[in-house]
TrEMBL record:
InterPro entries: Homeodomain-like_sf, HTH_TetR, Tet_transcr_reg_TetR-rel_C_sf. PROSITE patterns: HTH_TETR_2. Keywords: DNA-binding, Transcription, Transcription regulation. Residues 14-74 form the HTH tetR-type domain. This is AcrR family transcriptional regulator. Residues 37-56 bind DNA.
Amino acid sequence: MSGDTDVGADPKLTPGARRILEVASELFYWRGIHAVGVDTIAAESGVTKRTLYDRFGSKDALVAAYLAARDRRWRELVLARLDAVGSDPQARVLAPFDVLPEWLVPSSRGCSFVNAFAELPDEDHPGRRLVVAEKTWLRDLFRDLLAEAGVDDPDTLAAQLLSLHEGAIVSHSIVGQPDAATTARAAAETLVRVAM
């Protein structure tokens, strides 16, 4: 979702692989996956193509690593907020909206997952599967939190909240609406309050 490059959270990566992934993440996000070749990534990382392939195996695997790092950071941010808000059911449901303003700051090019989805039409591409898993995880998180709160139809409300959440990202990046996250949160709060 964002354009920032803190990919060091994966302890399995060597320092060289971490550098490759940081550079690739920036390039994929800002220029697009198909617009960036392994020659460019290797050159800007200060490594050979052979090193890049030794560490990641293929460009597709590097794309998947880029998206997995983004997904990991997003989930960690949301789960940390859930821990911080404690047991208040409404605050828990709204936690993904509460972290969205912070997440959007470095993300003027929109959601990295949506951008990747547009570039990866092959359903079997490992990156595309990660995109689907990330969006499904968020919808399921909303549903589970709503069910815990005793909402009658958590599936429908979860779909509505996901639509608001994703719409805020689009409004922020494409329309240039700086308050998109807070506007979406206010709408989500209204929906959740009525349902509880």
